[in-house]
Amino acid sequence: MAGALPDGEPVPADGSLPDEATARVGQNGFAVYVHVPFCASRCGYCDFNTYTASELGGGVSRETYADTVLQELKLARSVINPEKSGPWRGEAAGPGGAVDTVFFGGGTPTLLSADDLGRILEGIDRAWGLAADAEITTEANPESVDPDYLRRLRRHGFNRISLGMQSAAPGVLRILDRKHTAGRAPQAAVEAREAGFEHVNLDLIYGTPGETADDFARSLQTVIDSGVDHVSAYALIVEDGTRMAARMRRGEIPYPSDDVAADRYLAAEAALSEAGFQWYEVSNWATGDEARCRHNLLYWTGADWWGLGPGAHSHVGGVRWWNVKHPAAYAGRLLRGLSPGQGRELLSAEDRHVEDVMLRVRLREGIGLDRVDPVGAKQALANGLIDADAYEEGLLILTLRGRLLADAVIRDVV
């Protein structure tokens, strides 16, 4: 299970926001995240807010989930009204509507029917309007989709899919408790392209206990050969409370190695760059600017977003809030006409600055030196962690070595 939600001040029963927040909404873009908390089984490393059927108990079902999300959308539309709020008035709204991107995550969103995902997307369009060029993404486990399902998603307007491949090595998939076969993810990627998806991402996890350098090289080559235009690769992080953490404490499998993770990252950069991919965020590579995940870029560059679903986080005009975690509690609040928000915080100017630096330092475009601590930036330059030419032009941009030590650079320059 996911960890506890943070403390915060109470969310008003109607979910209302301060006037100064709604006055600024959408200035830097607006996104919608939809959390679908269902999984067929639980992966050993996962601490996301997800539930299998046996963990949910009664009163909550996949069949009624879309209707519950639509209830939150009705409340959201009353809180943020494009006809009354901020820069969404008149011509300030984007062409076709206010929502730039929508991302369905989980969990496994594709455990819902394609029609239910489509109904939620239609509800978002009714509430705020989808921009004419809106990016519409869903995550999917490879075994949860087939060609017919993918074609139906495409007809509903989805144009990007992110498939959880994790590895091409059967032994690594077993350690991660993944249920799909090694060949299913690249096959699903091909099926998504054939169904008309404009952009397809494959996720990789590296540094899993037992993974060899050859295993990871094979995973990278499989991704490249699949024809996708985006790759995300993350080092395995072992979270307290997960089955994998318990196995490591018992000595059944070793803990991940930082040195191995660094070697894997260097291998990923070498293989992907040679294949025509370019990094644009420390853990993300794309074949061109048009293939970058616009939804994540909105997060990383200070946009507003509304998170729908249990445990989902939102940020609008400097106010951040989070919904109750359990699907039954989430549905119960909405049935009573109450906001599902459990707590919220008003971010200070300093809070927003720190978060902006933390996120932008990880981007290929970097951040202006005027936004960071000059002493820390000079030290990072001396250590070869940031690009010297960019520094002369007033920018902080990570070198390859700096990307390996991004967290340390961020600590020094905040």
Comma- or semicolon-separated keywords:
414 residues, pyruvate-formate lyase- activating enzyme, single chain, nine-stranded mixed beta sheet, three-stranded antiparallel beta sheet, 2 domains, alpha/beta
Structure notes:
- This protein has 414 residues and is of the alpha/beta class.
- It folds into two domains: 19-346, tm_1862 like domain (pyruvate-formate lyase- activating enzyme); 349-413, no CATH class.
- Helix content is 39%, strand content 19%.
- The protein is built from 17 helices and 14 strands.
- The chain has helices spanning 19-24, 53-56, 62-79, 114-128, 147-155, 170-175, 184-195, 213-226, 243-249, 258-274, 294-300, 327-335, 349-360, 374-382, 388-392, 400-404, 406-413; strands at 30-36, 99-106, 130-140, 160-166, 199-206, 230-235, 278-281, 284-286, 304-308, 313-316, 319-323, 341-346, 367-368, 395-396.
- It has a nine-stranded mixed β-sheet, sandwiched between helices. Strands 10-11-12 form a three-stranded antiparallel β-sheet.
- A hairpin with a 2-residue loop joins strand 10 and strand 11 (319-323).
- Helix 4 runs parallel beside helix 5 and helix 7 runs parallel beside helix 8.
- The protein starts with 18 loop residues before the first helix and ends with a helix.
